[in-house]
Design goal:
With 261 residues, the chain is an alpha/beta fold. The protein is built from 13 helices and five strands. It has a five-stranded mixed β-sheet with strand order 2-1-3-4-5, sandwiched between helices. Helix 1 packs across helix 2 and helix 8 packs across helix 12.
């Protein structure tokens, strides 16, 4: 059986870059990408995959902006000194034997979700996702595991329940209820992770919560009813696409450590 290692590329690059509090400079970008390349090498050595899916955001407009033009409007853009060096970084990854996948109109999360679901659906073996992105943790419900490269720790179903108060299969509903300031996803006003988890523990999913909201006489019921439209929108925004045309085959993603430079 094989092992797919899906790497959330910019999750590594941006975190390494932003860990340095110095002003944006070419030297800072070069150093971040050197450390990021070392991180990729370490991931390959640690997990010894048979296939690797290094996914990177293409940037610009996505299908989520079609649903909600304000999506990610408050997020800081990638510094130009870093952005302009990414093509060279992709070439360095290619020298390692990796095929970078970056698809217009979708995010790296969608590419990873598509690849992981296809791999698992075809019964090809285990899947490891290298990322700290909470959205990708929903894929644990389908058999994937998450590896936090920065903390060197595994995230599984038990980790999700301890962190969020719900199992992975409820995580997308929880994220929709609580919203996400960094992505400008509205959610329901004044509903945080604890309240969202309690609602899901009581009702099971958003549909049942909204059915029950009609009889809740407190302020929470009032907010759920008032924010029902934006909750529906939020649920669509947090959903991961699993039908992305990635433009690669499994053969193109095959990894042979012996042939890597």
């Amino acid at each position: 059986m094989g092992k797919l290692l899906a790497i959330d590329g910019l999750n590594i690059v941006r975190r390494v870059y932003e860990a340095n509090v110095e002003p944006d400079t070419a030297a800072k970008a070069d150093a971040a990408l050197r450390h990021s390349l070392a991180s990729f090498r370490k991931l390959l050595a640690t997990h010894q995959p048979t296939h690797v899916l290094p996914a990177f955001d293409f940037g610009g407009h996505t299908w989520r902006h079609d649903l909600y033009p304000q999506y990610r409007e408050k997020r800081e853009p990638m510094p130009e000194v870093l952005k302009e060096r990414l093509p060279d970084f992709y070439m360095q990854l290619s020298a390692l034997g990796l095929k970078v996948v970056s698809v217009p109109e979708v995010e790296a999360d969608d590419v990873i979700a598509t690849g992981v679901m296809r791999w698992l659906g075809e019964g090809r073996g285990e899947t490891v996702i290298a990322s700290t992105d909470k959205d990708l943790h929903v894929l644990i419900a389908h058999g994937a595991v998450i590896w936090d490269h920065f903390k060197s720790e595994w995230h599984d179903s038990k980790w999700v329940e301890q962190k969020f108060g719900v199992p992975p299969e409820m995580l997308a509903d929880l994220l929709a209820l609580m919203g996400d300031v960094s992505d400008s996803i509205p959610g329901v006003s004044k509903v945080g992770v604890k309240t969202a988890a309690k609602l899901l523990q009581s009702y099971g999913n958003i549909e049942r919560i909204m059915t029950g909201a009609g009889i809740l006489k407190d302020s929470l019921g009032e907010r759920l009813r008032r924010d029902s439209v934006q909750l529906d929108l939020s649920r669509k925004l947090v959903e991961l696409k699993t039908d992305v045309r990635m433009g690669v085959s499994w053969n193109m993603l095959a990894y042979d450590a012996a042939q890597a430079d």
